[in-house]
Amino acid sequence: MVKTATFEALLEDAVPDGEGGYIFKLEGKTYHIKDTLEISKIAQEHDYIVIY
To answer: Is pTM beyond 0.85 here?
Structure first.
């Protein structure tokens, strides 16, 4: 199955963690990231095609 998402839509799921990073949730998994640019890599690991 091909999954697509815009970077902007994925970015909406990144919430500041209060420590300079973010909490990002995708498909029931929670990630603690330092930079929102990590979102693309995580989405690709979930077989998403990210549209910029």
So the answer is: yes
